[in-house]
# Entry
Amino acid sequence: MKTQRKKIAFFGCSLTSWYKRSLCRVFSIVAEELDVDLVFFNTYGKIGTRNGFTEDYETRILDYFDLNQFDGIVFDGEGYNIDGMAEKIERRLRRVKCPVVAISSYTEGSCEDFYKIRFDDAGGLRMMVEHFLDDHHFTRIGYMSGPLYHSDARLRLDEFRSVMEERGMPRDGVGMFEGDFWYNKGVEAAHYFLSLPELPEAIVCANDYMAISLINALRSCGTRVPEDIAVSGFDGSVEGREYLPHLTTVTRERMDIAQKALNLLVDLTNHPGKTDFDLRVSPKPIFAQSCGCDPLDYHRVLDIVARVQEEKRMMNAGVLDSESAMVKLNNAGSVRRMEAVFAEDSVNFGEYSSFFLMVHRDSNGIPAYDSRFTVPSGTFVPVIWIDKNKEYVGCPHSFNAASFIPQSNSDRCHVYYVMCVNCAEKVFGYSVVEMTGKDIFNDFHNVWLHNLGLTLNALQKNDHIEKLIKELEGLSITDGLTGMLNRRGFDDRSRNALAAIQERNTICTIVMDMDGLKRVNDEFGHYEGDRAIKALADIITRCCDSGEIACRAGGDEFYIFAADYSQTRLNRFVRHMENYVEKYNASNRRGYQLGFSYGAYLIETDSFGRIEEFLKISDARMYEQKMTKPGRRR
# Structure
């Protein structure tokens, strides 16, 4: 019997970044140790760098998910790189009933209702400064801060100043430069520090990314690290450990974070009133080559170089695979073809065991890629369903808020990644992927999702264009007053019907004309005349129940064509016409009577017959009948 295990959600942004990848890995490891299902809700955030695209649309999909099905939620708020997005996620999480634990210092002073991992960033920064002071005996130390609007940057800068003042030194050391927590300020920072009256012996950076960019810039200026200037970072990123020289830094122990966060949520589920838990995470210094400690291990360097070369090769192959997939998706004319392309070509973002793409449906069941789609109803329809290991209970017709993750029939725990699928501001739905190992997918997965969104958008536009074309075609062959075929439409349909005759066959043409239209127009107005024409047209349409093709030829004249006809069927048609007209006149209180004259022509012909000639004969017979009617008035 399948175990009903606990389910934990994780909310974060840009989880494919180097820093976040390792976080995902340790959370996946701990989730398996605790035997809980883990669902990562990942967002792109800002897309691109120099001309980055930012649009806060990804949070909309959360309105259609029932987050109360989770036993606990982990919130990593510091990775959201679009203003206001983290706050939107936070407000959404405030409405859930399960406990939420915040694992980033972004939440200091916010998320009052959340449990919080407590980081001793100040203690970590102090350890690094004291290492330079006590172990290396440096006295000229500079500081590269993060952006001062950021709480982490202010906290770390304050601690640097405190240590320096305690040791009787200038609070900013030889100088403080405000960076960006990223790679963009390294050159500017290097020029600043190298232009100081006192050249620093060491520079403490508030995170690893700035430290790496600073070292690169110092090298380009001919300054050696650590021989001329020692440099340290903060955060203990994967890039810092693999960078040469290996970066001296302070790490937030990710495994400790994952264990404390997930154990807390599991304990609170089992023991709701529990209060004795420790959420403190202590920093750990890593003293490496960038400050002159820990001599270089060349065997490890060779391993890193080999791995980097392999990753470069895989990256190049992944780019080529992406180009091929983009072309194929661009040619996909249906969601079924999309699924086939994905199943065949999705080989460049890592090994996965399952992938599902769900799109919105409206209240009429119309999917979001159909141009008739109106607004989301809260249900989704699967359009890509790839289950490599056959672990899921078939492909259901729809998903709703309570079951947006497919139901597995296996008894193991699962780790899923859920992401929004969109095209610019248009949200089509979401994807669910499960990787085979503990690592998250690479950025090519995001490229796939963007291309799937673009393909869905193209399908919707193409569907809209096709419907417009059909509508225009319908307008071009349809009479605007009556809704019947016009003369053009009648000619096309009747000629096609005649051309389809295999052998000689009896066909019939009828020309019908309203009686007394001029009197109606003169005495009751042209509006009432149009009403009378429409009434007769409706009666004709109702009587065409045996394959007859009818049109309004113009004014009050109508043409009718029928293949495989007989005198008996003609008599039946005329009799029905007369009965319906009689009923109409019995209920008509407008002061006039509806009437019609007709001429019919039955002839045996083949596909080479000329309908125009047959209609001329029918028209002459109609005129003869009209002329014989007593008191005839046109």
Observations:
- The first strand starts at residue 7 and ends at 13.
